[in-house]
Design goal:
CATH topology of the largest domain: Rossmann fold
CATH class of the largest domain: Alpha Beta
Mean pLDDT: 90
Helix content: 40-55%
Shape: elongated
Strand order of the largest sheet: 5-2-1-6-7-11-10
Largest sheet: 7 strands, mixed
Order of helices and strands: EHEEEEEHEHEHEEEHHHHHHHHH
Distance between the termini: 30 Å
């Protein structure tokens, strides 16, 4: 898929199954990257619904109450995220197992976050699969479920089962899924929005991009107001222009000039929405000597103009 191409496909329907004692951190790390992907792409790529077994309000481990949109047995979709977090042993009774087995017929993919792997395994839904779990539970999990090939990984994707080791890994997982399904460039933009330490990711999601690409991205970020010529950028990143072009196309799906322009236009959009700066001033801050040139690029990228976006 070309970088940042609008797909016009139906949004992916995600059910987020919460249990009493779920982790706020895990929930935010799963949902916020999807929200950001929707915002940055200008499309409804993801549509999520909060679920519980009985549609009664659930409370996180830190006391945050959430009222689910629906009960699990009335929901279906592309992916079910199972999120028990703390106190998961108290949720693995027969009613939960039956509900999860039934849900496996209505959701294309089952994803277990944090300790959710235990609940899937108890329901027999990980038999014959590779999986991980929060690393504090890795040994007892492997001992309890010999039918599961247990791996010490941040996340594991095996056919229609996805398992994840914890709250921080949930962000890496969702970022990986965004990159896999909608392009590494969008995943990069989401990572930059959240200021992750290694914003550029390879197709594997949890592996940082090459040093050359990371250096180039850092230089781009530092010089949005006064963009460098691509040959200069490559030289300062420690590579030839051809090498940088090749690496960036392989890792982000776009050449340096396209990535650079998108970063500048993303800043422009942020300034349009969050400030009262004149369009001419925004253009200068984003490396455009001519406001009309920025407006043309802005319209081509976001299908609107700065003034229309501000007025809307």
């Amino acid at each position: 898929m070309p970088v940042w191409e609008k797909t016009h496909a139906a949004p992916q329907k995600i059910g987020v199954l919460l249990f009493q004692g779920f982790s706020n951190h895990c929930l935010a790390n799963a949902v916020e990257p999807m929200r950001a992907a929707n915002m940055l792409s200008g499309q409804q790529l993801y549509d999520w619904t909060f679920l519980s077994l009985d549609v009664q309000p659930v409370e996180s481990s830190s006391g945050l109450p959430v009222t689910p949109h629906n009960r699990l047995n009335a929901a279906s979709g592309d992916m079910l995220m199972v999120m028990p977090s703390y106190g998961f042993h108290g949720h693995d009774g027969w009613s939960t197992q039956a509900a999860l087995r039934a849900a496996a017929r209505r959701f294309s993919t089952l994803t277990a976050l944090d300790t959710g792997s235990w609940l899937l395994a108890r329901a027999g839904l990980l038999d014959g699969y590779k999986a991980t779990i929060h690393w504090e539970e890795l040994t007892p999990f492997a001992e309890r479920f010999p039918e599961v090939e247990v791996l010490r990984e941040r996340f594991v994707i095996d056919r229609d089962r996805i398992t994840c080791s914890g709250a921080m890994a949930a962000f890496d997982l969702v970022l990986h899924l965004i990159g896999r399904d909608h392009g590494q460039a969008l995943a990069l933009e989401v990572a930059q929005l959240f200021m992750t330490r290694d914003s550029a990711r390879s197709h594997g999601g949890s592996v940082p991009a090459s040093r050359i690409v990371n250096r180039a991205l850092a230089l781009m970020q530092e010089t949005l107001e006064d963009p460098l010529p691509i040959p200069t950028l490559a030289r300062r990143a420690g590579a030839t222009q051809k090498t940088l072009e090749t690496r960036m196309r392989a890792e982000l799906g776009a050449p340096p000039a396209t990535v650079y322009q998108r970063m500048r236009l993303t800043l422009a959009r942020k300034l349009v929405v969050d400030t009262d700066l004149a369009v001419s001033e925004i253009a200068v801050r984003c490396g455009y000597a001519n406001p009309a040139a920025m407006t043309r690029a802005f319209r081509a990228t976001f299908a609107t103009t700065p003034r229309a976006l501000r007025q809307g």
